[in-house]
Specification:
With 273 residues, this protein is of the alpha/beta class. It is 36% helix and 10% strand.
């Protein structure tokens, strides 16, 4: 089983405990990025499709912060029941024609395979704009990480969002197994989430639901950090300020996505002479 590092310091997109990721970017930007979004996700305008349908593949945000703002704005539309991009079915044919020649997704979404987490609808983004990697427990294997690298390096994606969700069956299975082997190939799921229970022990005073909620958030943070730790290519893009890697958590009941602070790279240790 591979050991996954545990990210202790990350700020929340909502005001439950920390400041929004995009607000953090404006107030105290991560060391690896210097671009500030023009608007916060709550006030970002909805980007409607062209009135006569796309003549070419739609252009996406041109920076990590703008990409995060666009996802947050799309999620706000989804929560409010005011989706725009995913309701424009009258132009499906022209959209397909525009995408035949290539793709340029502005964001990678690494999320759980759960059927209740439809990422395109959650972020109100039509075909060609999101590069999605779905694995149980949002725990990508090596091929999943390679897919994220392909999107970032070759397709120009500006953002990698690693999104867990509430009521996650994969996290629940890991908790209930409590270290005992799961049947069939589910050992791979346990390997991908190795160390989760140890990093987030059950407090005797908290109920099971509360513990599961903490595990779901912790898993999203850990998986995002693991992707960055296991990919020198992605770390290089982060260093060059071309990419953000952001943990997130989707609430099944409200539809709201809670974004956390973009991951920062640890500064290099000073050389000893």
């Amino acid at each position: 089983m591979r050991a996954l590092p545990f990210l202790l310091a990350a700020a929340s997109f909502t005001l439950l405990a920390d400041e929004p990721a995009t607000h953090q970017a404006a107030k105290a930007k991560p060391q690896h990025h210097a671009t500030t979004p023009a608007t916060t996700p709550a006030t970002a305008p909805a980007a409607a499709p062209a009135a006569h349908g796309p003549a070419s593949a739609p252009e996406g945000p041109d920076s990590p912060s703008a990409a995060l703002t666009e996802l947050a704005a799309g999620n706000a539309r989804f929560v409010a029941g005011k989706r725009v991009r995913t309701l424009d079915t009258g132009h499906d044919a022209s959209m397909r024609a525009a995408l035949v020649g290539g793709q340029a997704p502005f964001a990678v979404v690494v999320t759980c395979s759960d059927s209740r987490v439809p990422d395109a609808l959650v972020f109100d983004q039509e075909a060609g704009r999101l590069f999605t990697i779905r694995e149980a427990g949002n725990a990508p294997d090596l091929q999943g990480i390679a897919s994220a690298e392909y999107a970032a390096e070759h397709l120009g994606s500006k953002l990698v969002v690693v999104m867990g969700h509430t009521s996650c069956g994969a996290v629940k299975a890991i908790r209930e197994a409590n270290g005992k082997p799961l049947p069939g190939n589910l050992w791979a799921l346990q390997a991908g989430m190795s160390g989760l229970l140890e990093s987030t022990p059950h407090d005797p005073n908290e109920d099971v639901k509360a513990h599961l909620a903490r595990l779901e958030e912790t898993n999203a943070r850990r998986q995002a950090q693991a992707i960055l730790d296991r990919s020198s290519l992605l770390r290089g893009l982060v260093t060059e300020e071309k990419l953000w890697v952001v943990p997130a958590l989707y609430n099944l009941a409200s539809g709201k996505v809670q974004f956390f602070k973009p991951l920062s790279l640890a500064p290099a240790a000073p050389a000893h002479h």
